[in-house]
Amino acid sequence: MQNFEFVSPTQFVFGRGVEEQVGQKLAAAGAKSCLLHFGGQSAVKSGLIDRIRASLDAAGIAYVELGGVRPNPEISLVRQGVRLCKERGLDWVLAVGGGSVIDSAKAIANGACIDEDVWTLFETKRVDHEVLPIAVVLTIPAAGSEASKNTVISNDELGRKTGYANNAHRPRLAFMNPELTYTLPEYQTAAGCTDMFAHLLERFFDNCEPVPVTDNLNLSLMKTVRTFAPVVLEEPENYEARANIMWAGMLCHQGLAGVGRVEDWATHGLEHELSALKPEITHGAGLAVLFPAWMEYVHELNPGRFAQYGYEVFGVAPSGDVLLDAQAAIDQTRMFFASLGMPTTLEELNVEEADIESMIPTLKANKGEPFGSFMRLTMDDARQIYRLAL
Ligand code: NZQ
Ligand code: ZN
């Protein structure tokens, strides 16, 4: 088991109607004012933002609104948020939405406490500054940003999408009401389930020895997502299924499913280039295409690990040939994502062979070379994985 530090300061408030407690809980945590940050339209249309306003008003918390976060959030809106926090002296950031809104909120909470431009943090990765406290009302289980140490932001001018990790911006409060996810379009529900499953794969497949306490937790979460993802698609208002998926999405990425392991994260790096190139690509959909391709490319290095995953998560019957079993596990993974309605080729995402070369320089800038852990990948390996996914 690798040495590790694990910090998880988030207070979770989970269940029906919990968003009504936002004002009261923020006030109890010492908030006087906040930036109320949200996305394109779903939270306004559903009446959620109105309920949050009412809750903040009742608790006497002043707020300034900044909506319009797009999926694959962009740095220019982050900069606007930073300006608002500084000019108005706001002391918390309240994100109402999914990974994109929460990531934008995290970036704002950092930027509000430094003198230089917030993008410098995504370049230098420095973590030696204060960060405004963050609260979250989650509306889509997927990215796990409601408790994670990461924020991922696009910079369209530079053609980059890159992550920045800081334990100080893990949310202090996360309100999670599974009923808020009933309105999700099927595609977003499916992409969210794919993303959370991918967060487990990134942690399970690396180059270190088994860590049973971590691996068993990870496998159990994989089985949970595999079981309930089809149920939430079939029955969008099944509270128990939505609740299991919502809590699983958090557990998949807050860190516990990987502690003591090295973790891989090559496929996320490959995917972030897709959604940087074409911001209309949903992160989970990109992962659904790339993960099986990555698995095909690397599995022969340790087929036993893939076979174990296949036995445990998909009930693959041992054939006596571990390589065959590993292949069966990869096939099952591809079929699982496809059964949720996710794409299986880059072509379906309108990415062509000619696009591959344009992603390589930014991939190298973001991930370095070599990158990943299960197999140390060069840029040539990356090209081949993208080609396998075409
Ligand atoms: O903008 P609105 O109108 O709200 O619509 C959103 C958006 O179009 C919609 N939506 C959200 N909740 C809804 C809803 N529609 C109806 N009903 C609801 N209850 O769903 C769409 C997708 O939202 P988004 O926030 O983009 O989804 P997700 O949570 O999947 O976040 C994706 C972003 O997170 C990053 C991804 O790269 C991507 O940029 N990630 C962040 C991570 C982290 N911070 O730890 C880790 C992940 O690996 C990931 O990279
Ligand atoms: Zn992800």
**What strand line-up does the widest sheet have?**
1-8-5-4-2-3
Fraction of residues in helix: 40-55%
Distinct compounds present: 5,6-dihydroxy-NADP, zinc ion
Average pLDDT:
98
Distance between the termini: 37 Å
Q: Class by helix and strand content?
A: alpha/beta
Number of helices: 15
Tell me about the largest β-sheet.
Answer: 6 strands, parallel
Radius of gyration from CA coordinates: 20 Å
Description:
The chain has 390 residues and is of the alpha/beta class. It is 51% helix and 12% strand. It is built from 15 helices and eight strands. The chain has helices spanning 22-28, 42-45, 48-59, 75-88, 99-111, 119-124, 186-204, 212-234, 239-253, 266-277, 283-298, 303-314, 322-339, 353-367, 379-389; strands spanning 11-14, 33-39, 62-69, 92-97, 134-138, 150-155, 160-165, 173-176. A six-stranded parallel sheet has the order 1-8-5-4-2-3, with helices on both faces. The chain has a two-stranded antiparallel ribbon with strand order 6-7. Helix 7 runs parallel beside helix 11 (283-298), helix 10 packs across helix 14 (353-367) and helix 11 crosses helix 15. The longest helix is centred in the middle third of the chain and has 23 residues, at 212-234. It is globular and about 65 Å long. Zinc ion binds next to helix 7.
